[in-house]
Write a structure and sequence with these properties.
Pfam families: ABC_tran (PF00005), TOBE_2 (PF08402)
Oligomer: single chain
CATH architecture of the largest domain: 3-Layer(aba) Sandwich
Order of helices and strands: EEEHEEEHHHEHEHEEHHEEEEEEEEEE
Shape: globular
Keywords: ATP-binding, Nucleotide-binding, Transport
Organism: Dethiosulfovibrio salsuginis
Number of domains: 2
Domain ABC transporter: 3-239
GO molecular function: ABC-type transporter activity; ATP binding; ATP hydrolysis activity
């Protein structure tokens, strides 16, 4: 099922009697049938409010919501055929795994044989086989989240909604649950909207990421597009780490720190330009002929080393050295050279 959001806004009155708050401001977005789209942004950007309007827990102040061809603005949440996986799991502590997952099916009045048939398929799909008689108190956080996920998908919804479902889990378990949610969503082909403030989570799980700020969409695209070609400084800074370099763009390329780098330059980019250079796109070496810099900080992170370097021509830069055990480690106070790879540079739109 296709989800279409047309010019949707949500306005809340101010608590102190002042100006109203536009939590969501004229959002237009289409989620294709079977697509998983993540709403990403900092706290207060409007992503959760937008999700709640899709679910039916908030009414739009302006605009329209369509599930397929059906306008659902005034349709009650229980009649939208959409299910929401909550951050807090929201499973019943007095019911076992089987009864928690079957709860919605029983409300729909399904026969016991049909319930067991659906349950058997879903329980094994989410990795809870053999745990049907356990109570929530006997489950880990990850297993409780699997119960919440199974309870949502067993209803066979047209739309699956996720409200920061992994934020209560530890880092390693979050990584595994991201894989499991993505696998399950693709296997079922359910149109899904996922809300998070974690950019790594958004990048790893999504067909498309929608970056929001102050109630508006800043940029929408695939994880690769947003990382490699951010539209503005906010998106570049929110999606991973970034170095921002001031330069001058002309038809043949861009000049940074007095050195010229060939790039395809659009007419609108000619003149003063701000260039994004990702930390892993910079190279540290002792070879002469690049930008002389001094190592200010070295942070070993296992799979990479993060350096902070000070360069007279470029300013302070963050540099990532991937697979550090295979190369030389540089220590604070050392003089090194930094080189830029032109194919990894990106010019931001002028604001």
């Amino acid at each position: 099922m296709e989800l279409r959001i047309s010019e949707v806004s949500k306005v809340f009155p101010s608590h102190d009697g002042g100006a109203v708050v536009r939590a969501v401001d004229s959002v237009n977005l289409t989620v294709a049938d079977g697509e998983l789209v993540t709403l990403l942004g900092p706290s207060g950007c409007g992503k959760t409010t937008l999700l709640r309007m899709i679910a039916g827990f908030e009414d739009p102040s302006e605009g329209d919501l369509y599930f397929g061809d059906r306008r659902v603005n005034n349709v009650a949440p229980n009649r939208r055929n959409a299910t929401l996986v909550f951050q807090s799991y929201a499973i019943f502590p007095h019911l076992n795994v089987f009864e928690n997952i079957a709860f919605g099916l029983r409300l729909k009045g399904l026969k016991e044989g049909d319930i067991r048939s659906k349950m058997e398929k879903v329980v094994h799909m989410v990795g809870l086989g053999g745990m049907e008689t356990r109570r929530p108190s006997q489950l880990s956080g990850g297993q409780q989240q699997r119960v919440a996920l199974a309870r949502a998908v067993v209803m066979e919804p047209e739309l699956l909604l996720f409200d920061e479902p992994l934020s209560n889990l530890d880092a390693k378990l979050r990584e595994q649950m991201r894989i499991d949610i993505r696998r399950l969503q693709k296997a079922l082909g359910i149109t899904s909207v996922y809300v998070t403030h974690d950019q790594a989570e958004a990048m790893s799980i999504s067909d498309r990421v929608v970056v929001m700020k102050d109630g508006r969409i800043e940029q929408s695209g695939s994880p690769v597009d947003l990382y490699a070609r951010p539209r503005n400084r906010f998106v570049a800074d929110f999606i991973g780490k970034a170095n921002f370099l001031d330069g001058t763009a002309s038809e043949g390329g861009v000049i940074l720190g007095g050195k010229s780098y060939p790039m395809d330059i659009a007419p609108s980019e000619v003149g003063e330009a701000q260039v994004v250079a990702r930390p892993e796109a910079l190279v540290l070496s002792r070879d002469e002929g690049h930008f002389p810099c001094e190592v200010m900080r070295t942070t070993f992170l296992g799979n990479l080393v993060e350096y902070e370097v000070e360069c007279p021509n470029l300013g302070t830069l963050t540099v990532h050295q991937v697979n550090p055990m295979a190369g030389e480690l540089f220590r604070p106070g050392e003089s090194i050279q930094v080189s830029l790879r032109p194919e990894t540079l990106h010019i931001l739109e002028k604001e």
